[in-house]
Design goal:
The chain is an alpha/beta fold and 671 residues long. The chain folds into two domains: 491 residues, ANL, N-terminal domain (Rossmann fold), CATH 3.40.50.12780; 127 residues, 2-Layer Sandwich (GMP Synthetase, Chain A, domain 3). 33% of the residues lie in helices and 21% in strands. The protein is built from 21 helices and 30 strands. The chain has a seven-stranded mixed sheet, sandwiched between helices. The chain has a five-stranded parallel sheet with strand order 7-6-8-11-12, with helices on both faces. Strands 21-22-24-25 form a four-stranded antiparallel sheet. The protein is globular and about 75 Å long. The structure holds 5'-O-[(S)-ethoxy(hydroxy)phosphoryl]adenosine. 5'-O-[(S)-ethoxy(hydroxy)phosphoryl]adenosine binds next to helix 12, strand 20, strand 24 and strand 25. Belongs to the ATP-dependent AMP-binding enzyme family. Keywords: Acetylation, ATP-binding, Ligase, Magnesium, Metal-binding, Nucleotide-binding. GO terms for molecular function: acetate-CoA ligase activity; AMP binding; ATP binding; metal ion binding. It holds the Pfam family AMP-binding_C. One of its GO terms (biological process) is acetyl-CoA biosynthetic process from acetate.
């Protein structure tokens, strides 16, 4: 694989070679294959008529108020219209229709609080709660089309809040509870939200951690900035801790719901009505508001959930460990499982609270049959040792999913053997916030799975690996992952910025969606994902932008310049490593051990404040210079070599080739 840009990070060649030597393969057992929802014929069915196939999925998996007659309108490419003249409601599909079909008593959510408090919510309960919340939102003046920001921990109310917005046609924008007040503020401003739903706090590692103060701070008036568009803040009471209260603006969730009617007529919307905006990191400093609409998104979310996880709603207990603040929580906690009428577990806390067997205890307690989690979590559990899961009965598990980053074969094998009892198929699912739903994954009853590979585009999806000139690479070749045909759950744009949408995804290769990932085809034509080839990092499965962290760093008065790279890390996949040039006397101060510690602390806290604790650099290296090309672009590739303790690669395109020596020399000196 060759790059025209000097400073584009390259996937690790060593890990690539390891992957190419991976030859193990695990076909499904005959018993699993025989009962699977997705049979081998699904591929042929989809390729015989892709649009007819999707139309059939949309018809079978969703209930439409007015059925669509048109499947895809691509005349406004790259903005697609799927099922454009159909009318439906997402919350009705997720909740009401199951009650109407006689499944009101089925458990929708087994909620497990971190401290062990539990709550069982049936579909009938959910219908009442969502209807009440929808009425409460309407009473607070939220109308179809208004944006609502949701900033909550993992609670039943979080799912209810999202569905209540969907029920009244108000697009939600969930902001991960780990993001800072500043990050929340900029997302509220960009979405011009009318209302914020939050909580007093949540429980994290045994302690109540407040959330509402961040909302208060995010809504504060600031000189030189326009007044906030937010009129009300709905506050869920979770920890019972003290909260500051702004009269006329703040409203308790429980009070608003108590007085609300349990009946609510869903607001029927067009298939292309915006369902949500979700902000994600891109290659520039400003997060992108990824826009998803209703009909196509729900169709593909439901289709993938049914076929990739082999969901049997009557008998399965499904658990996706993702937070609703990420796309995985949107598609595979809130929407797909409920659309499909599943019973699922929602867990508030962390895997090690109060002990490191917590997840496996939950699997045993609820008899979880399908588990969907991230490689970083698996690697962490590996580190803790297999004697911990061995203390629990995990025999109920029959399908295991992985998402968020490439899974290394070693973690894959451990997941299969220790968690899956050497029998449960693993589905390594590749997709993105932008794709809305799973795109590349084995089918558990069909595909002979390979440790570390997402393998094949799902029936109905067309993916390829291309070279610099957009030519499909032959088997055995590597290049860039692209999607060559529109798909139902594709993003419909970046909120308020159509040009950026075209530029970011559609300009690199004519007519192709460029995902930003490097990939490789093996001799069977199976796809192996190799990580990002742009300035996006993947830390514990969370997307972080190098540029965004760099701008956070330079916004601190002691920093003159900053460069951030993602360095390989055994547990988190990548770790944030920052190189900073300090201003004037601060540089001298940082040369002493105490001064250096202080700089580290100050800047790490500053990044946590600007973005959130997840973006904190693991290491901050104070340097005298940064390596730049003649056009002034930072060559992160060389800094990654330093951060990963490798010999520094080809530096001939640097404007000043002695810079790398300066940097290495400075770092070699103690302190
Ligand atoms: C990476 C998460 C390899 C990839 C759903 C992608 C993966 C980015 C996989 C999207 C996988 C996700 N194998 N890499 N199975 N799944 N990725 O938007 O780099 O948070 O571009 O969506 O995660 O991250 P996002």
């Amino acid at each position: 694989m060759r790059n025209t840009e000097d400073d584009v990070p390259q996937p690790e060649t060593s890990s690539l070679e390891n992957l190419l030597h991976e030859t193990r393969s695990f076909p499904p057992t005959p018993e699993f294959a025989a009962q699977a929802n997705a049979q081998p014929g699904l591929y042929a069915e989809a390729s015989a008529g892709r649009l007819a196939f999707w139309a059939q999925q949309a018809t079978e998996l969703l209930t439409w108020k007015t059925p669509f007659t048109e499947t895809l309108d691509w005349s406004g490419a790259p903005v697609a219209r799927w099922f454009g003249d159909g009318i439906l409601n997402a919350a009705y599909n997720a909740v009401d229709r199951h009650v109407e079909a006689g499944h009101g008593d089925r458990v929708a959510i087994h909620f497990e609080g971190e401290g062990g408090d539990t709550r069982t919510v049936t579909y009938a309960d959910l219908q009442r709660e969502v209807s009440r919340a929808a009425n409460a939102l309407a009473a607070l003046g939220v109308e179809k089309g208004d944006r609502v920001v949701i900033y909550l921990p993992m609670l039943v109310e979080s799912v209810v809040a999202m569905l209540a917005c969907a029920r009244i046609g108000a697009p939600h924008s969930v902001v991960f509870g780990g993001f800072s007040a500043d990050a929340l503020r900029s997302r509220i401003a960009d979405a011009e939200a009318k209302l914020v739903i939050t909580a007093d706090g949540g429980f994290r590692r045994g302690a109540a951690s407040p959330l509402k103060p961040a909302v208060d701070e995010a809504l504060e008036e600031r000189e030189g900035e326009p007044a906030t568009t937010v009129q009300h803040v709905l506050v869920v009471r979770r920890t019972g801790g003290d909260v500051a209260w702004t009269e006329h603006r703040d409203v308790w969730w429980h009070e608003a719901l108590e007085s609300a009617d349990v009946r609510h007529e869903p607001v029927w919307v067009d298939a292309e009505h915006p369902l949500f905006i979700l902000y994600t990191s891109g290659t520039t400093g400003k997060p992108k508001g990824i826009l998803h609409t209703t009909g196509g998104y729900l169709t593909q979310a439901a289709y993938t959930h049914r076929n990739v996880f082999d969901l049997k709603p009557e008998s399965d207990v499904y658990w996706c460990t993702a937070d609703i603040g990420w796309i995985t929580g949107h598609s595979y906690v809130t929407y797909a499982p409920l659309i499909n009428g599943a019973t699922q577990v929602v867990y508030e806390g962390t895997p090690d609270s109060p002990h490191r067997g917590r997840w496996w205890e939950i699997v045993e307690k609820y008899g979880v049959t399908i588990l969907y989690t991230a490689p970083t979590a698996i690697r962490t559990c590996m580190k803790w040792g297999e004697d911990i899961p061995a203390q629990f009965d995990l025999s109920s598990l029959r399908v295991l999913g992985s998402v968020g980053e490439p899974i290394n074969p070693e973690a894959w094998m451990w997941y299969r053997r220790v968690i899956g009892g050497d029998k449960a198929p693993i589905v390594d699912t590749w997709w993105q916030t932008e794709t809305g739903a799973i795109m590349i994954s084995p089918l558990p009853g069909v595909t002979a799975t390979k440790p570390g590979s997402a393998q094949v585009a799902l029936p109905g999806i067309v993916a390829d690996v291309v070279d610099d000139e957009a030519h499909s690479v032959p088997n055995g070749g590597g290049g860039y992952l692209v999607l060559s045909e529109p798909w139902p759950s594709m993003l419909r744009g970046i909120w308020g910025d159509l040009e950026r949408f075209k530029d970011t995804y559609w300009s690199r290769f004519e007519g192709l969606y460029f995902a930003g990932d490097g990939a490789k085809k093996d001799e069977d034509g199976d796809i192996w994902l190799l990580g990002r080839v742009d300035d996006v990092m993947n830390v514990s499965g969370h997307r972080l932008s190098t540029t965004e962290i760099e701008s956070a760093l330079v916004s601190h008065e002691i920093v003159a310049e900053a460069a951030v790279v993602g360095a390989a890390d055994d547990t988190t996949g990548q770790a944030v490593v920052a190189f900073v040039i300090l201003r004037g006397e601060h540089a001298d101060k940082a040369a002493t051990p105490e001064g250096s510690d202080e700089v580290q602390l100050t800047l790490r806290n500053h990044v946590a404040k600007e973005i959130g604790p997840i973006a904190k650099p693991r290491r901050i290296l104070v340097v005298p210079e940064l390596p730049k090309t003649r056009s002034g672009k930072i060559m992160r590739r060389l800094l990654r070599d330093v951060a990963e303790n490798r010999t520094v690669g080809d530096a001939t395109t640097l404007a000043d080739s002695s810079v790398m020596d300066l940097i290495s020399a400075g770092l070699a000196t103690p302190g």
